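Entry 12.
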Amino acid sequence: MHKTTGEARALASGLAQKLADFTWAEVVLCPPATSIATVAEARGEKIGLGAQNFYWEQEGAYTGEISPLMLTDLGCTYVIIGHSERRGYFHETDEDVAKKVRAALDHNLCPIVCVGESLAQREGNQVEAVVGAQVKAALSQVSREEAGKVVIAYEPIWAIGTGRSSSAEDAQAVIGFIRRTAGQVLGEAEAALIRIQYGGSVKPENINQYMAQPDIDGALVGGASLSVEQFTQLLEAAIVEGK
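Predicted 3D structure (tokens):
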């Protein structure tokens, strides 16, 4: 919940200028709903557009919600689903996440599905139980043919906005587990097509460490994406040979 529409326009247009010749990775901005149309106009040709949330119904008496049809009408091709803040503050369940994943795919939106454990769950050796259940639920309504249209973001809750971040090795261990779990649901070949990101206090100083890991395909960036300079520095620092 950052940036007025004017601030969002300045950020998107600033990034569009910086990334005019950027080709090596896909970059997507997911602004608050109030700024989606503004960012759509200001983002340039190299930057994709996504939303931070939506409701799974196409239309109806759901006051305050936004439908997948509304998002695609604005030019969105991505939507974040099941962020820990949605799960925690707004009590979204694994079942809700599964419905949203299905609705996203039905409307040609690529779901960025967030999974992750709390500090208490990590210290209680529950990481695989918690994250595994989230992954299985999220993929429960996805066909094998749709595997390549799904992105999963591993965001340990204790690392979001805290300045603390999972080590690259720990992140790789969990993300490797996520890929194996996806393989159990959809098949190993299909799981290899799923892009899996790391998120949680990702900065220019540490992004390269994560991108060097074999199963980490990208990053879901929070605070570092709010500054044109910092986000550009992060993208430049993320280049890893062979990825």
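Annotation: Strands lie at 27-29, 47-51, 78-81, 110-115, 151-154, 195-198, 218-219. The CA atoms of residues 161 and 192 lie 29 Å apart.
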